[in-house]
Specification:
Layout: H1 2-8, H2 14-26, H3 40-43, H4 49-65, E1 75-76, E2 96-97, H5 116-124, H6 130-145, H7 153-166, H8 168-171, H9 186-199, H10 215-218, H11 250-267, H12 275-283, H13 285-292, H14 300-306, H15 313-324, H16 328-349, H17 356-368, H18 374-385, E3 394-397, H19 403-409, E4 417-421, E5 430-435, E6 438-441, H20 449-462, H21 472-483, E7 496-498, E8 505-507, H22 515-531
Parallel strand pairs: 3-4
Antiparallel strand pairs: 1-2, 4-5, 5-6, 7-8
């Protein structure tokens, strides 16, 4: 049972594993076949919501394939051999189907060929220098190519996962708070696969790539606009609740919704201060989710007509907390202040490294002096670093602009935008949120910049909106680094995008974790560990 659970959750610590296996035995799990009947309710008290979903899906898929009974010739192990004295609580193997890669069964990572500095870091459980990590990648790929010139991404993934299992403290992708970023080994996987492709750049016989699609084949499929998300697994813990509050049912919740509509029509936004409204909004969360998750999805205007209080900062953030378990307003306020300052320091201390986009933003920050909000400065620097334009998230307007003026004079897109009222984005002092071409949250409901960021980011989750492709990298960075929501998949599924180099529509690479985000977080954390 422990081996099966480890296969699904390799980073699970020993105490959690013991508690989980004890509970499974208590509820009657006696054989491996019994695991496919375990439900979320059985394990939710022992694991995080995402780990619960991973485990249940793994149990069901393994049950369907009927491969859980006993070890057999259809599985084998990838082992990491080395002389390090460090031991890991995780096993050093990953079951893989034989037909996917027969050479993996005998593959050994040559830890003895690594640099002395790397071996010392591994023995002490420390993060290695970037140069030592790159050398390790070269050694591993050279060893792989002795038996397979062009390993697939899946095969590289198994190798990367085995490295992370053996040395999680040295190589896993984690936030400063110790939380896994995505699967935990994505950056190492990218390094391995990139090295393989680099070595095969002139060897056409070894390539396995699909032929590129021509421009004519792409013209009939334009980049999609923001749309309702289809899955509930993107960091949410209560995406589509089925159970009504105690003593409530569909008809009673509809009566409460109509009661709130009556209060809003009589008193307007001021009714939000009533304790009655706060209580009603909490009780009707299930009904709100059903309206938002309707198929086909309702327009944002229709949602506002049904739930006007939801489009106020207080209730949008409360809904986000019920949806994800995170106090968005508090977390963003803390992260933008503390992490924003360090990101600013990171870019300033290495100013000669950056391209003209980043250097331009740094000069604007210096001109504004101490009045600059460090959180906003950090986000603008990240947008410049990712080569995404400010207008993909922020629209600048005069400080006297009203919501009606903004809808009339500005070209408001479908996807969420913060309208920054002031001389420029960097020195704005008032903010409004627009979605679907209309202003839904005015500046009177946003007392500070962190509140503005909270409603901007929260709207994607609360309203089931995918990230617009032109700002997807920055939004994923905010999500993973500031808000610390780290699922395995992406919240932008657009198949095409406009090339930043040629301006043409090109096919977009979709991966579980944006490689630019993963690379920057790793580099930033390495810098922080060395300088703080």
């Amino acid at each position: 049972m422990e081996a099966v659970i480890r296969s699904a959750l390799p980073m699970l610590d020993k105490d959690q594993l013991n508690d989980l296996t004890s509970e499974l035995r208590r509820i009657g799990v006696k054989t491996d076949d019994d695991l496919q009947y375990v439900t979320l309710d059985d394990v939710k008290d022992f694991l995080s919501p995402i780990d619960c979903r991973k485990l249940i899906n793994f149990f069901k898929s393994r049950g369907n394939e009927n491969v859980l009974a006993t070890p057999n010739p259809s599985t084998f192990t990838v082992q990491c051999h080395g002389s390090s004295s460090v031991t890991s609580q995780s096993p050093t193997f990953i079951p893989v189907p034989v037909q996917s890669a027969t050479w993996l069964s005998d593959f050994q990572i040559p830890w003895g060929k690594m640099t002395p500095n790397l071996q010392t870091c591994l023995a002490q459980g420390k993060r290695p220098e970037a140069s030592d990590r790159r050398h390790m990648v070269r050694v591993i790929v050279d060893s792989i190519r002795e038996v397979c010139l062009n390993p697939s991404k899946q095969q590289c993934s198994q190798i990367a996962q085995s490295v992370i299992q053996k040395y999680p403290h040295s190589f896993s992708d984690k936030t400063e708070e110790g939380e896994l970023i995505g699967c935990g080994y994505y950056s190492l996987l990218c390094q391995l696969k990139t090295r393989v492709e680099h070595l095969n750049r002139n060897n056409t016989m070894a390539r396995l790539r699909k032929p590129k699609r021509t421009e004519g084949e792409m013209d009939d499929s334009q980049p999609s606009t923001s749309k309702s998300a289809k899955l509930d697994s993107y960091g949410c813990v209560n995406w589509n609740p089925a159970e009504f509050p105690e003593g409530e049912h569909l008809e009673s919740l509809e009566l409460k919704r109509n009661e709130m509509l009556s209060l809003f029509s009589q008193e307007g936004p001021r009714a939000a201060e009533r304790n009655k409204v706060q209580e009603l909004m909490k009780l009707t969360f299930v009904a709100q989710r059903h309206s938002i998750n309707a198929s086909p999805p309702s327009s944002i205007s229709d949602l506002q007509a049904r739930w006007p209080f939801l489009f106020m900062k207080r209730f949008l953030c409360a809904h986000f907390k019920e949806l994800t378990g995170i106090d968005l307003d508090l977390r963003l306020k803390e992260s933008l202040c503390t992490k924003g300052e360090r990101i600013l320091c990171f870019f300033k201390n290495q100013s000669s490294r950056w391209g003209k986009e980043v250097r331009t933003v740094l000069r604007e920050i210096d001109r504004e002096g101490r009045d600059v909000d460090q959180g906003l400065a950090a986000v603008l620097l990240m947008m410049a670093h990712f080569k995404e334009k400010e207008e993909s998230l922020f629209l600048s307007a005069d400080v006297t602009t009203t919501p009606a003026d903004a809808e009339t004079r500005l070209s408001l897109p479908y996807a969420p935008r913060l309208i920054m009222l002031g001389g420029s984005v960097l020195c704005s002092k008032k903010w409004m949120l627009s979605v679907e071409g209309k202003v839904f949250i005015p500046e009177s409901d946003l007392p500070d910049l962190s509140s503005a960021f909270a409603v901007l980011f929260g709207s994607y989750y609360v309203l089931n909106l995918e990230y617009q492709v032109e700002a997807a990298t920055t939004l994923e960075f905010i999500q993973r680094f500031f808000v610390r929501i780290n699922p395995d998949n992406s919240k932008c599924s657009s198949r095409f995008q406009v090339s930043k180099r040629s301006g043409r529509i090109v096919q977009r690479k979709n991966s579980g974790l944006n490689p630019h985000v993963s690379s920057f977080i790793k580099e930033f954390l390495d810098f922080s560990w060395q300088n703080y």
